[in-house]
Design a protein that fits this description.
470 residues, mainly alpha, two-stranded antiparallel ribbon, 8% strand
Length: 470
């Protein structure tokens, strides 16, 4: 007796997943499976995988940035910035220290690495790169991507990107990432040989799946809304911060103008020259203190920008899930259509209008041999379709399981990082207020001395004028 295949509509609805519990356990299990898969590929891959395990035991730093001139793919001269990546083992082998390895990478090579990780690990929230051009900056800060201050901030961001990847339980084991840190020459050729560009999903296909998927997973729909809200809130916060920085900068620099006035005035006045000079000095100190304050604030703004770009990484996971769900629905729909055709041929009844049915009525029925041949072909296609649908179902459930584990890991990381950043930001402002308060107190004392001096002087002058008037 033949086993009745399950209905495609029932397979189309994935069974609800149980709570995943500790996301770290799921990630460790997934990482272990990938490591076992690597070990089966051969001795060379086994050695590479073993080396990848050491990534947690080495120090990674982007220690230097250098401006260079070269030729691009169009054979045109261009100016770019190269970054020095240094890796050093924190342990010793046989009592001898391991020498530091170093190599230079361009920002575009970091982009290639991240694009590769996005394609081969679609279920992972891949850490973002720092901005290529400055955004959400206050008007006194240069937006030029070759500006030394911006290059320094981007150097710190690139180092943070490498540390994020190296500390990820799955990404740290990738051999392309290992070669990125250790192989300077021919690295691009190696990563291009993986064919990751051909495996990347097109944006048009992803957009089509977004609008045409019929049964989206509510959790991923909520995650997409969460990422949109995260991006909106952080963008608004950065814009407000830029406006406040502009106003604060203006208020502080006004005191610098007063400082110059008092300094010039002190050269004219003999009796109160020292007081004017002291007041001008304290106003200059007060005005210059804003530069260090806003520079420190820019560091915390970069931390917020990292999670602004993380929002797009979350949406990339959601888009991949929508594509998989759309392919699953299309496979189920195609299987249902083939089953209906097979049933119509077997019973000789046509339930729905079709071009084939019209041609049959116009040109006559098929012979029994032709009908049997068509039924046989359809049955083979149905068997293939059922296997394909089963495979897509399993692949989709595995993707959801791994993706949700990594999303939970990301949320814990986000809460921890933003909490630390905001606490440090508050501590920095408290320290700033104490420092500025001390300068303001000194300026206020000088102002009171000057005011008292002016009142005494002009009061004495008024008495003289009054005496001569009468």
């Amino acid at each position: 007796m033949e086993q009745v295949p399950p209905e495609p509509e029932r397979q189309l609805q994935p069974a609800p997943l149980e709570p995943l519990g500790r996301p770290e356990a799921e990630l460790e299990a997934a990482a272990g499976e990938e490591a076992e898969g690597d070990l089966e590929e051969g001795s060379e891959d086994r050695k590479m995988t073993e080396n990848n395990f050491w990534l947690k035991k080495i120090e990674i730093s982007v220690s230097e940035a250098e401006k260079r001139t070269g030729r691009n793919a169009m054979n045109m001269q261009e100016t770019y910035t190269a970054y020095l990546i240094e890796t050093r083992s924190v342990e010793h082998t046989d009592g001898q220290s391991v020498l530091t390895d170093s190599l230079w990478r361009r920002y575009s090579e970091f982009e290639v690495l991240r694009n590769y990780l996005l394609v081969y690990y679609p279920h992972v929230v891949v850490p973002p790169l720092p901005e290529k051009r400055a955004e959400f900056v206050w008007h006194k800060l240069s937006a030029d991507n070759m500006d030394p201050d911006f290059v320094e901030r981007r150097r710190i961001g690139l180092e943070n990107f490498l540390l994020r990847v190296a500390s990820h339980p799955i990404l740290c084991r990738d051999k392309i990432f290992y070669l990125f840190l250790t192989q300077e020459g021919n690295w691009k050729e190696t990563v291009n040989e993986t064919g990751f560009q051909l495996k990347a999903d097109s944006r048009l296909k992803a957009l089509n799946a977004t609008f045409r998927v019929k049964n989206p997973d509510k959790r991923f729909t909520e995650l997409k809304h969460y990422s949109d809200e995260l991006q909106s809130v952080i963008s608004h916060l950065l814009r407000v911060r830029a406006r406040v920085a502009d106003r604060l900068y203006g208020v502080y620099k006004v005191h610098g103008n007063y400082g110059r006035v008092f300094s010039e005035w002190s050269a004219i006045e003999k009796e109160m020259g020292d007081g004017l000079q002291s007041a001008g000095h304290h106003m200059d100190v007060y005005a210059s203190s804003i530069d260090d304050i806003l520079e420190d604030e820019e560091h915390y703004a970069d931390q917020l920008k990292e999670y602004l770009f993380y929002a797009e990484a979350l949406r990339a996971v959601c888009r991949k899930h929508e594509l998989m769900q759309y392919d699953l629905e299309m496979a189920a729909q195609d299987l249902a259509s083939k089953k209906q055709q097979c049933e119509e041929l077997a019973t000789g009844t046509v339930r729905t209008f079709s071009l084939k049915g019209m041609t049959t009525k116009l040109f006559g029925q098929e012979t029994p041999e032709q009908r049997e041949a068509r039924i046989k072909v359809l049955e083979e296609q149905i068997n293939e379709g059922e296997q394909q649908l089963k495979s897509k179902n399993l692949e989709g459930r595995e993707f959801v399981k791994k993706a949700w584990a990594d999303i939970e890991r990301f949320k814990e990381q986000k809460n921890r990082d933003l909490k630390e950043a905001l606490i440090s930001y508050a501590v920095m402002h408290i320290s700033m207020c104490k420092k500025v308060g001390l300068v303001s107190l000194r300026t206020e004392v000088c102002s009171e001395v000057l005011t008292h001096f002016f009142e005494t002087k002009f009061s004495y002058s008024d008495q003289i004028i009054h005496h001569f008037h009468f």
